[in-house]
Amino acid sequence: MDAPPPDGRPRPPLRLLPTGGAVQVNQPLPFGAGRNGRAAPSDLTETMGKVARGDKQAFSALYDALAPLVFGIVLKVVRDRAQSEEVAQEVMIDLWRQAARYRPDAGSVQTWAATIAHRRAVDRVRSAQAAADREHAQAAREHTTAFDEVAEQVETRLESEQVRRCLRGLTELQRQAVTLAYYQGLTYREVAEALRTPLPTIKTRMRDGLIRLRDCMGVTT
User: Fold this and answer.
1) Residue 54 near residue 17 (C-beta atoms within 8 A)
2) What gap in Å lies between CA 137 and CA 199, rounded to an integer?
3) 3-state DSSP: the chain helix, strand, coil percent, rounded to 5?
4) Where is the sequence biased in composition, kind Pro residues (predicted)?
5) Is residue 86 within 8 Å of residue 78, measured between CB atoms?
6) pLDDT tens-digit profile of 126-143?
């Protein structure tokens, strides 16, 4: 079992409820519907107070009442259902951990949960976009770095017999990869996709191919 979080409260992913210092795993309830389709209670202030005191039954009721609302808000922002389910799960965990912070005079339980759900969803979208941007930038850097040392001296001679002869000295995969990169300007990842070859293999073959091509053409760095 995972170690408890710093606040000592059990982790409740979906329906993980505290029981005697441990946790009890119940069957997860699908996001998007309350228990047996019944409507959520309109006033959850008392329930939230019980959750803040570690009441597992209260958290079960809170989950049933708020899961559809939370999932709906997250799905509108994230749009991907699988990711939305993950984020909604994180929101329910937040509601369990932060229950003691809820203040009725600041708004209803539903409003508080909706605020947390929206913030979590926006964070997920931003995180995904940032990861995609980093991957694209890294691919561009790798592509540029790999060719910088030989590109200037080789570029003007790509059509020469010497280049064609040196290319024939490469393996088939090396030749295809180098040709795609030089003639079409593809990145490592794009070359890997075009040749249906794992990215690490393409990186290795490209590096070895460039070294062989450089040595064959007598290019100095």
Assistant:
1) no
2) 16
3) 70, 5, 30
4) 1-15
5) no
6) 988 887 777 777 766 666
Q: How far is CA 136 from the centre of its chain?
A: 15
Which of 30-39, 77-86, 166-175 is the most confident on average? 77-86
What single-letter DSSP state applies at residue 37? Answer: G
Q: Is residue 184 in a domain?
A: yes
Tokens (6 digits) for 19? 């029981």
Residue at 100: amino acid letter: A
| CATH number of the domain bearing residue 183 | 1.10.10.10
- Identify how many contiguous H helices and E strands the chain contains and give both numbers: 8, 2
Q: Are residues 121 and 180 in the same domain?
A: no
Rg (CA), the chain: 28
Residue in the structure block whose two tokens are 């079409």? 184
Q: What is the three-class DSSP state of 24?
A: strand
Give the closest residue to 138 by CA, choosing from 187, 89, 208.
Answer: 187
Q: What residues contact 183, with CB distance under 8 A and at least 6 apart?
A: 158
Q: Which two tokens stand for residue 142?
A: 């790798």
Residue at 72: amino acid letter: G
Q: E strands of 55-96, at which residues? A: none
Q: Which amino acid type is present at position 25?
A: V
Backbone angles phi, psi at 16, to 5 degrees: -85, 115
